[in-house]
Amino acid sequence: MDKIIVHGGHTLSGAVKISGSKNSALPILAAALLTREPCVIHCVPDLSDIHYMLQILSHLGAQVERASGTVQIQAENVSTTAPYEIVRKMRASVCVLGPLLGRHKEARVSLPGGCVIGDRPIDLHLKGFRALNAACRVEAGDVKVFAGELKGSTMNLEGRQGPTVLGTGNVLMAATLAEGITVIEGAAAEPEVVDLAQFLIKMGAKIEGAGTRRITVEGVKELHGAEHSVIPDRIEAGTFLVAAALAGREVTLRRVNSEHLNAVTNVLSESGFQLNIQKDTITVKGNGAPRPVDIITEPYPGFPTDMQAQMCALLSRADGQSSVTETVFPQRFMHVSELKRMGADIAIEGATARITGVPKLSGAPVMASDLRASAALVLAGLVAEGTTEVHRVYHIDRGYESIDEKLMGLGAEIQRVKQSAST
Fold first, then answer.
1. Number of domains composing the chain
2. Is residue 115's pLDDT more than 60?
């Protein structure tokens, strides 16, 4: 098990290229199961979650080839069963349910694992499948879905904490091969859903409204192969924007979609940082202690929950008191206790973190609890006095492609160290 050691106090400068989006790539890779023909997908990031997804596709019988960020998949003959040993490491493995149901009218997938950031059920996925005329049940840890035929209908996938991104994608994939018209009300509007829809349209699907709360799908008899490039990862980009704001002199992000980052860049501007925003590049200049701000996480286009931990790290150095309210995953504050070990002054009141800025953080051994928490601890280590050891960084490898190497390229003093299993 690796750990990342960060030696604080080094100024970041230069340019960094943002990788393809993990949250786009995972359902797009799964969507290749909808056709017997080859699909070619570019800008696929090199992440452990991607490796797990490709293992699942191979286990199901798909032919998978990967080279330099490009993946070719041909699912000519596939199984409809994905057992626990294959899916247990990644929650997003559930997104093979939709394409298997759409193409084969049945699927059996073990309930997946993933980050410990609160309750993330798949009830809305199953609600959508049932609306398409599928029977669904959970038994012995497996989700079983099956239908004589899929029939389009109108459904609402809005949950208590807002729309479901993965659920919207899952139902969208199944609906492409359902008979008739499907209308998804309360759909997620995230760019990753739009990217999946664009890929499905290239495959021959008839989809309108992706990027809004109402998506309409006209089912077709079959889909064909397609070629597609995954959009840039807006959460990786946001993470590097925060790193630059915390520890940078002048850092430029390349290969970004700046429109996808409006909520993050608006908060950074409000906090006093100077940004030069172009269509596919963003430059941020460090500006000393940030001004305090109040943030509420919301579904897109609101401030993303996946940037909440990183902003907690930034605002721990603000000149005054800030607040971060988490409405999507209210329990997602496990990083706070670790930031406090580094000297941060943060109090949790229900779903809100009250953050009083401190003049300095101190390096300490800390433990990553989930993907974004691990990134926040690395960012805090960049400006902490002394050395920070971030343990359990297998979390960070799920969503950041070579984050340590990219930070070193900007001037950080950071290293990855192998640990024995007992460490």
1. 2
2. no
Strands 154-156 and 181-185: parallel
* Banded pLDDT at 85 (limits 50, 70, 90): confident
Residue 376 DSSP label:
H
* Residue 154 burial (CB count, 10 A): 12
Give me the catalytic one of 39, 43, 95, 115. Answer: 115
CA distance 361 to 188: 37
Distance of CA 100 to CAs 60, 209, 256, Å? 10, 23, 32
- The residues, any chain, with a CB within 8 Å of residue 114's CB and separated by 6 or more, are 89, 90, 91, 92, 120
- Cβ-in-10-Å burial (0-12, 13-18, 19+) of 291 comes to middle
Q: For residue 354, give its domain range.
A: 2-19+232-418
Dihedral of CA atoms 322, 325, 331, 336 in degrees, nearest 10, equals -10
Give the position of tokens 């669904």.
136
Average pLDDT, stretch 62-68? 96
- Residue 285, CA distances (Å) to 13, 176, 252, 291 in order: 9, 45, 9, 14
Mind spelling out the 3-state secondary structure of 281-292?
A: EEEEECCCCCCC
Give yes or no: residues 224 and 236 share one domain.
Answer: no
- Give residue 119's pLDDT band: very low, low, confident or very high (50, 70, 90): very low
Q: What is the DSSP string of 344-374?
A: -EEEEETTEEEEE--S--B--EEE--SHHHH
Check whether residue 221 and residue 340 sit in a common domain.
no
Query: 114 pLDDT band (50/70/90 cuts)?
Result: very low
Do 60 and 34 belong to one domain?
A: yes
Chain centre to alpha carbon of residue 188:
14
Per-residue pLDDT, averaged over 131-160, amounts to 94
Residues 317 and 271 in one domain: yes
Whether the pLDDT of residue 101 is over 90: the answer is yes
- Of 229, 252, 280, the last residue of a domain is 229
| Peptide bond between residue 301 and the one before it cis (omega within 30 degrees of 0) | yes
Kindly report the CA angle at 11 between 5 and 16, in degrees rounded to 5?
85
Is 95 assigned a catalytic role? no
Token output for 238: 């946001």
Asked if residue 80 and residue 117 are part of one domain, the reply reads yes
Tokens of 236: 């990786």
Q: What are phi and psi of 148, to 5 degrees?
A: -65, -45
321 and 282 in contact (C-beta within 8 Å)?
no
Type of residue at 222:
E
**Mind listing the pLDDT tens digit for each residue in 235-269?**
999 999 999 999 999 999 999 999 999 999 999 99
